[in-house]
Amino acid sequence: FSKTINETANHTLNLLDNLLFWAESQTDQIKYKPEPINLEEAINHTLIFSKVSAGIKNISLNHIQNCEIEVYADRIMLCTVLRNLISNAIKFTHPNGKINVYTIQREKEAEVRVSDNGTGMDEATMEKLFKTESNPSSKGTENEDGTGLGLILCKEFVETNGGRIWAESEIGKGSDFIFTIPCVGEC
Fold first, then answer.
1. Residue 130 in contact with residue 165, Cβ under 8 Å?
2. Cα separation, 23 vs 105, whole angstroms
3. What global pTM score does this model have?
4. pLDDT of 111-144, one tens digit each?
């Protein structure tokens, strides 16, 4: 029962956060407030809150950092993007799987890659990602529900912060969701 309650509470919280942020973004109520942020700390903070959900499916969460990277971004938007991508990776990774979060500095931007060894997607599904008119919502490996709203929000928030977002995937081998964010200084 506690497993079900925890899954339901996490799913509901994530859904409500996404709906609230989406509604605010559609009515121009979200104020973009960029600041220097230690990217590694933001990722580690997000992973701490994701460990319970991952633990239920016995999924290992790993942060593979290249170096300390400071980015210039809106903290709330950045953490929302990280939370959504990691939550999706957990959703589509089989029990006993693994998720790696990589950071790389590329010239004046950081690249964040959330990589899982889950179900993966075909080309047709990937083409529909990040689009409001055709964004797919699929059941997770343990029949977890989704709305498809999280990826739309991620795209909007990444682009607001001056970055790009995309996915790479192969059926049965997992998915990588990658986004860039402007850096402050050098690595």
1. yes
2. 33
3. 0.83
4. 999 999 999 999 988 888 887 765 556 656 555 6
